[in-house]
Structures are given as structure tokens and as C-alpha cells.
Amino acid sequence: MPCLHTSIPTGSWILMTGASGFLASHICLQFLGRGFKVRGAVRDPTESSWLLEGRFKPYADTGAIELVSVPDLGADGAYNVAIKGVAAVVHTAYVTNIVPDPNAVITPMVTGVRSIMNAAIREPSVKAVVFTSSALTASPLAPGVDNGTIGRDSWNDAVLEAAWAPPPYGMSHAMAKYPASKVAAEKEVWKIVERLGNDLHFNVNVVSPAGLTGEPLNKKHIEGQANWVVHAYRGNKAAMDALPASFYVDVKDVALIHVAAVLDPEINKARIQAWGHSAHWNEILAILRRLRPEKKFVDDYPDAQHLKVSIDQTEAVALLKKWSDKPDKNYDGWTSLEDSIFENITNPYLEG
């Protein structure tokens, strides 16, 4: 590992919300590998006990990782006990319900931000709080239109307005809930930061990834709706047709950016866009055919095009280069899409 000055000492406790998630589990592993301890907040520790087994077991055996129950992330005081004594918080948890009523998704996401921030404000040991947002908070990433240039003040306000449109609620409301909840939650983060200013005793950063690819650590990470590579591998045209092009980033890269956003004392109040590679389905299908030449995949899409959007990811790449343990001087930051897809489909959880 690189020998770098960190904002918190090695051996400190990190509170990881939503610890059993695809991204969160990798963040946990990376902190553990660097000598930190992880307190994983999950809805049901019994269902998430795999975080104490397999690759996590050596750390569990020494007490470096533990699980705590936070069944309702939007409840007032939800993290008051879990946050005791931690040096940093990484808040990846989100409401997974895809339902039409915005009050069932957006409202608890915002109250969850308030809950974790209020708990951090009351806990003097906290030195850093990092929130996981989404590329969709800055842009709709819509195909066939010019999405413009993404900057610090870019917001996908249209999806928030669509989600809060008055009832009757239909499926269009439901589909807008995830990006809308991320927009609302991230705006709440910055609202609190602006209101409290220098009174905050900890750094606050936000990391916004696009579509995640790479190694799953549990079977449920393969079966999730957002596992886009698996949709292509299995020929799930309904899911593929809805997203002809996007940006894809390896989960380990995004995990490392979260770690850096906690540990790097020079990073504060950053809105880090971690989108990775622009790609359309034909490029992903070509990689899958190279990796699995014996398997039949769906036909290429006619007139496939990349998304029309301009994004500066200099900050994310700089953090990857600074905090990575890769010795290659020519390391350019992002894991290649092909290497990431290889790990996505080469695991014990993928069937057929």
C-alpha cells in the first residue's frame, strides 16, 4: 500500500451503512486491507452474516469487522448507537423499494441523510463523512440527446420534478424514484454542509459512480437489477433496450475512491464524479464474445452510439493514482472495461 498521510489513524473504526451491498462490501474489504476496522450497519445481521465469512473471516476472527442492526435508515436517531467511537462514516445505504409513491422512497432517503449527519455532528470522534450518490444526480444520461457538460453545479432536477408530480402514481413515477431519491439526498447533504459551514468538525465528500461492473462478493450482487453486464450475458433484452448506452466503472475503483475520500486530508467538500468508461451494448457484447466464444449472445444493436455528454473525471483519476497500490508507472486510473467484465462473469454465482 502507498505510504501516505491519512486524516484518521490506522486501526480506526469506520461505520459503513448498507454494508452488504455490492459497492459497500468492496469498500469494507479495502478498509480492512489497509488496517482499519469496520462496523457494518445492515438491516438484518443474520441475512448479512456472509460479511463475517469467506474473505472477511480473517478480519472477523480478530474483531476487525462487526455487524450492527439499523432496520430503518430514515428513523430519527437510527445511527446514534452505531456511530459511537467511529472515526469516519461511509453512507452507501439507500431505499431499495421501487414503488410509485415518492413519500415511500425519496422521503426516507432524505431523512436518512439527516439522521447520519446529526449522529456525526453529535459524535466528536468523527473526522470524515462520505456519501455515495450517483451519476444520475448530475445528468439524466439520456440517449440520443445532448446531455451537455457536467460541472460542480450540474443537477438532474427534471427527474426530481417528475418523481414528485401529483398522483395518481404510475410506473413512470416508480422508475424515477431511484435517481430522484439520489438527487434529493445529495442536495440535502450540501444543504446541511452549507448551513453549518465551519462548525462541522469533520470533512464531507460525495462520490457519484455510474453503472457498476466487476467482481461480486455475494450471489445477490449478481441478481440485482443494476447488474448490467449480467443482463447482457443472459440476453435480457428488456433491461438492455432501456439503457442502450451508459458509463461503466469497476466496483473496486469506486471503492478505492470512497476510501481515498475518507483518508485523504486534502479532500473536503468534493463532489467526485466516478463514471469510468463510456460504452454502448455493442462494445460490451464484443467483449463478452471474446471472453466466452462458445456462448451465443444477442445480436448487435443497429446504429449504436455513445451518450452525448462531457464529463471531467480528473479528480477521480488523481485519487485512484494517488491511493492505488499498483506499481505500474503508466497506470491510468480506471480498470479496463474488459478486465472488469471478466471479473463480473467469472465467479461462482453466475449461472448460464
From TrEMBL:
PANTHER family membership: ALDEHYDE REDUCTASE II (AFU_ORTHOLOGUE AFUA_1G11360) (PTHR10366:SF562), NAD DEPENDENT EPIMERASE/DEHYDRATASE (PTHR10366)
The entry's keywords: Oxidoreductase
Record has Oxidoreductase as a keyword: yes
InterPro entries: 3Beta_OHSteriod_DH/Estase (IPR002225), NAD(P)-bd_dom_sf (IPR036291), NAD(P)_dehydrat-like (IPR050425)
Protein name per Swiss-Prot or TrEMBL: Aldehyde reductase 2
GO molecular function, one term: oxidoreductase activity, acting on the CH-OH group of donors, NAD or NADP as acceptor
Residues annotated as domain 3-beta hydroxysteroid dehydrogenase/isomerase: 16-262
Keyword Oxidoreductase: yes
Protein's organism: Canariomyces notabilis
Membership in a protein family: Belongs to the NAD(P)-dependent epimerase/dehydratase family. Dihydroflavonol-4-reductase subfamily.
SUPFAM superfamilies: NAD(P)-binding Rossmann-fold domains
